[in-house]
What does this fold into?
Amino acid sequence: MPTLTIAGLGPGHINQLPLGTFRLMKDHPCIYLRTRQHPMVKDLEAEGISFQSFDNLYDSLDSFEAVYAEISDQVVKKARNADLLYAVPGHPNVAEETVRLLREKVKKEPSLDLQILPAMSFLDAMFPLLPHDPVRGFQLLDGLRLEETPPDTNMDVIITQVYDTMVASQVKLSLMNHYHDEQSIIVIQRAGILENQQVHHIPLYQLDHLKDLDELTSIYIARVDRFSKIHYNMNHLLDILEKLRGSEGCPWDREQTHESLKPYLVEESQEVLEAIDGGDDEEICEELGDLLLQVVFHSQIAKERSAFTMSDVVNGIAQKIVYRHPHVFGSEKAGSIQDVKEIWETQKSREKNHRTSEQSE
It folds into this structure.
């Protein structure tokens, strides 16, 4: 049975390449690198190790997704006929999309054996240069996908793929939606390669001013104090209400109950309706925020007596919406609004019967 071996090349210095991987590469007849754009290449050549790469695909295809898909297809195809060693920068299972694709494809190849050889990742090389222990948690993000997966400012954040000035500029603009322009960041280039390693402590707005950015450039941003944000999200709002209701919070907020808040719930609902009638989007946005505060307030009060949490509220309504829309999230079909109404009535009837059954048990 042919064996596909996926090996990590480490951060970029020959001394960081695992000995077992080095020995295997010295004798292996068929080696492919994802890319030659890695400091280890010159060391491999100096050791007389022969290999091929997929760099031509980066020039011929129009997206990284297409490149990675084609690489994984070619690797599997070649490995069906003979043992193949596929080597990638860093650790194979850290920020390597082609490896993820290969692992999925090999599941459908019963005649192909898969072996993964670990190596030091770029994260291992970065950690000694950072001010905090990663045990407190961190978020690892792709600099090309910040719009899809934005940073969580409650956590330390490490961003990869900041490989040129254009990407750095895009990353900077995206991050400025979540951090102050003066936010301190650490830019690390070629971590672990001591003769070429660079560490820059700069404000965020200077990110795209740096020179010589390459594929081995990453950014570190320490977590921001919970109540000093430029951009708050739902989790932050929950933290704020918990703080207000805490022992060192606001006396008025601490005294409120479900009953005492009832007038405000009615008032804020009415103001939302008035804003909608007025047609002012900014006012609608503000009034919806005031109404949301009431929902969070009631949820915090309930949480304190272990009744339910905001998570329970969100989960409950999400479950209900998905259940009542089997024509969207399931296999049923709805060609008209009347079909939808009939589905709703059927689903609500099933819900009622289910609750009645549970209560009788």
User: Anything to note?
Assistant: Residues 6 and 116 are 5 Å apart (CA to CA). Strands lie at 3-8, 31-33, 52-53, 84-88, 113-117, 138-142, 156-160, 184-189, 198-203, 217-221.
